[in-house]
Task: structure prediction
Amino acid sequence: MKAVVYLVLATLFWAGNYVVGETAVKSMEPLALTWWRWAFAVVPLLVLAHVVERPDWRAVAARWRILLAMGCLGMGAYALFLYGSLQYTTAVNASLINAANPALIVVFAVLLLRARPGRRGWAGVLLGLVGVLLVLSGGHLDHLLAVRFNVGDLLMLGAITVWALYTVLGRRVRLPAIASTAAQVVFALAAMAPFAAVFGVPLPAGAPGWASLGFVVLFPSIGSYLLWNAALRTVAPGSAGMFLNLITVFTALAAVLLGRPLAPVQVLGGVVVLGGMVLTSLAPRGRTTPQPPAGSAIPARPPAGSGVSTRAGRASD
Result:
């Protein structure tokens, strides 16, 4: 239950990242916004990890390969793709493409972790996707046929691809959640440093820009990533991915708070999304999972309610 709360809060903060990020890219380039969000977040993350978890930093450093990969994917590439996308495409198109993320995570889990989603797992993915489409289209699904993809849409496809890989890799990290997140940020900044030096990363000029950056640092950067990585310690990637559909639902709720009307069919879509999450979280009946070989980083049995089982398989950095 705690993991579910973590995932819901993480997606709530990320929904804010869509809204605030769309404003922020008007005054900051994607590279500058990505660089400064992590530059301001890295010290609080490191201090928090040391005080709360007191990790063995040598053990953390020993996993540098996978932490570097996750940092480049989840902290660097994803943010760059997302903010770049918001410069060229509409929020509707970006949200529509993001709705494919849960299904893509399940596919990568099958390919890389040899996961075996049950019928309920696949049904939950499809149901969640239908719910998101209802929210986006207002019940007029034929409107989606008129969507034209541009450079921004292609960048968003890159964003969900790297996030799917990031989520699957997260199941292989056996480190304290805060320390893992902090280390990933350090590696992401190291990887982006040469680009920052060459292209420059100016700070925002006015108060609105600083307010947007502050929100992105506190909530989508520190809050969401800590909660997401903590949840991945007990939740299978496919099940966690289903919660990403809540980004669209929360975005719709934000529209209501901003005084924009919300059609009943969009409320229905949100209910369908939640139904898909519940269906995916139900463990398949009559399914057993073989034990992994000694030293495997993949758990012997997915957590109860994951809806996904995995075969034995060794993991490497």
Summary: The first strand starts at residue 115 and ends at 117. Residues 285-317 have pLDDT under 50 and may be disordered. The chain is about 70% helix and 0% strand.
